[in-house]
């Protein structure tokens, strides 16, 4: 966190849940010390599980549909927008096991992170090892160049467990228009729409749901709208790190939300409840101002929601401008137990919670 401290004013730090440890909180590792992370490339001890963990158990059969591996044995793209710290498969296994009801690691979907560009080698290596460990069904979302990828490459990705491709323009330091985003999504859809069980996963600015509504309304290829479809909580919308509770509902008026809900109701869109810290700057591990979004979506489109931790909780595109690639971006400190508790409370229905955690992802990713 030293890097964020160095670059940002203190008032923007609530990106990070860093409340003082309490008796109710346990640490995943005895060595956890969130105050001593270094931003230098010589940092040697960093464990992405060094976050406080409030106990929380997911229903049996749950899926965490968006996690990343950062394995420096596989080189990062030269033109990446940041250099991540390490996040290994063993660490991921340990992380997901903390939330499992039966002591086994829960089903995951590995998502190709932006620093690897279109080289899916680290992802494929992870899927291979997941298969070897008999850890659920290997599933992944890759990144391709639609103009260059061959049929053979798509086939090989499928055999490895890949069930979709990703379009992500929100990890970059600069913003991208709805028109540009739609062109990227269209190219991806056109290239993979014949692939059995494949989706196009998108992390783009939410105005796209309004601006390209007609395009999405006619699609049959599933679209996975990452991180609450790019929607924002009131703290981000108003640039106020401590909004009052009676203002939280204002998030329900934002551009794109109504169209996104409509597209999930009658179209092929799924919405991923993940990355609350990408929606909110609220200074609380509980992320209270995201609740109206979670609750509204749970009531409106309970059959089209899926969950993800977004582990190991990478930083934000807008903080990457001007940072040299020699500086390692540390992961955020996120108490995922608290995030889950806040989402569970906002969903306010155990049957809808089970759909989000178990049956919806099972159907979408075909975990069988
Ligand atoms: C974390 O490290 C800082 C600086 O070395 C130290 O002052 C603090 O006591 C440590 N906290 C814990 C919980 O170990
Ligand atoms: C982090 O980076 C900043 C700017 O490069 C530097 O001033 C600071 O000393 C670094 N902190 C650590 C703990 O390395
Ligand atoms: C990341 O992994 C590389 C290669 O295994 C290792 O050299 C490096 O020290 C690790 N970095 C951290 C911060 O753990
Ligand atoms: C990085 O370069 C590749 C081609 O080598 C290009 O397809 C990609 O768009 C570039 N990415 C960024 C973030 O500039
Ligand atoms: C979507 O389908 C409707 C009805 O079939 C059609 O009128 C409309 O032109 C289509 N829109 C696009 C963008 O293809
Ligand atoms: C948000 O607030 C911070 C601190 O008050 C200010 O520096 C920043 O420019 C604001 N950003 C926007 C987008 O208004
Ligand atoms: C949404 O906007 C309308 C019209 O601008 C306003 O009347 C209403 O109070 C707003 N609702 C919320 C929840 O902010
Ligand atoms: C949760 O649902 C119950 C009904 O099952 C309702 O009485 C209660 O008001 C709801 N709580 C919230 C915070 O919406």
From TrEMBL:
Residues 28-44 have a biased composition (Low complexity). Residues 28-49 are annotated as: Disordered. InterPro entries: Amidohydro-rel, Aro_Compnd_Degr_Hydrolases, Metal_Hydrolase. The keyword Signal applies. Coiled coil: none annotated. Keywords: Signal. Residues 1-19 form the signal peptide. One of its GO terms (molecular function) is hydrolase activity. Residues 64-367 form the Amidohydrolase-related domain. The keyword Metal-binding does not apply. Pfam families: Amidohydro_2. This is Amidohydrolase-related domain-containing protein. It comes from Kwoniella heveanensis BCC8398.
